[in-house]
TrEMBL record:
Pfam families documented for this protein: Heme_oxygenase
Gene3D superfamilies in alphabetical order: Heme oxygenase-like (1.20.910.10)
Annotated spans, Disordered: 1-24
Record protein name field: Biliverdin-producing heme oxygenase
Composition bias type Polar residues, residue spans: 7-19
Signal peptide range: none
Keyword line: Heme, Iron, Metal-binding
Entry keyword annotation includes Metal-binding: yes
CDD domains per record: HemeO
């Protein structure tokens, strides 16, 4: 069953989450957003939900900075909360915090990130990988669509979340990141647990898209909407 022996961990984790990546990419909400079928309110709510998720991710940074497993991944140039806050000020106005509420899926996602951030550095790495490496990749496609659909200034307010000002060469950065994954100080069992947590991270993202999709159903996204949304 274990074909992982000898396979670099970066390959293992990517391969293990490939199917869920496709599912997330093709979720009704993402398809509608990338297809230009949603209004800016949907994008603003999505951005707000990311603020809660990245708040949880980045609240753990201080406590994990010296950790031998998670510490090497914590690069200041990745931090997204300040960028999300600038985007939200642009999208919602300076009082945006007053109305910011996590959807149930967001609260569950952020709670899991907080939990692993406090108790399991390997699990935290799984969440870190799922979000930041994704933002450096597909995130760039979302930025381009958002600029075109809602008229944000190129790489300006509204899409700063997707702009990594201090990462001049994302491809090189991702290579280094994968080298860190490959050097993860963990045995095979722990690596398998990290892969499982990555799958869980993808599932938490998909659940969030489902809730967002239910709110902004365009007909197409209704298929991926799941159950009714309490709120
Ligand atoms: C419509 C939305 C999305 C598009 C178009 C997209 C596109 C891509 C592309 C093109 C890559 C490959 C980049 C490369 O090989 O360097 C990638 C990688 C990645 N994406 Fe996405 N993505 C989307 C959504 C997501 C979501 C929702 C997540 C998770 C929250 C995610 C997580 C990742 C991760 C972790 C990688 C890195 C895989 C690896 O090389 O290890 N993506 N994405």
């Amino acid at each position: 069953m274990d074909a992982s022996h000898g396979t670099p961990f970066s390959t293992l984790i990517r391969t293990a989450s490939q199917e869920q990546h496709t599912e997330a990419e093709n979720s009704g909400f993402m398809s509608d957003m990338l297809g230009g079928r949603l209004g800016v309110a949907a994008y603003a709510l999505y951005t707000e939900q990311l603020w809660f998720v990245y708040g949880a991710l980045e609240d753990a940074v201080d406590r994990l900075s010296e950790d031998p497993v998670a510490g090497p991944f914590l690069r200041p140039e990745l931090l997204r909360v300040p960028e999300l806050e600038r985007d939200l000020t642009h999208l919602r106005g300076p009082g945006w915090r007053d109305g910011a509420v996590p959807l149930p899926a967001t609260a569950a996602y952020a709670a899991r990130v907080t939990e692993v951030g406090r108790s399991w550095p390997g699990g935290y790495v799984a969440h870190h990988y799922t979000r930041y490496l994704g933002d450096l990749s597909g995130g760039q496609i979302i930025r381009g669509t958002a600029e075109k659909t809602w008229g944000f200034e190129r790489k300006g307010d509204g899409v700063r979340f997707y702009v990594f000002e201090e990462i001049a060469n994302p491809a090189a950065f991702k290579r280094e990141y994968r080298a860190l994954l490959d050097a993860l100080p963990a045995d095979d069992l722990e690596k398998q647990r990290v892969v499982d947590e990555c799958r869980r991270a993808f599932a938490l993202n998909t659940a969030l898209f489902r809730e967002l999709g239910a709110r902004f159903a365009t007909g197409r996204s209704a298929t991926g909407a799941g159950g009714p949304l309490s709120a």
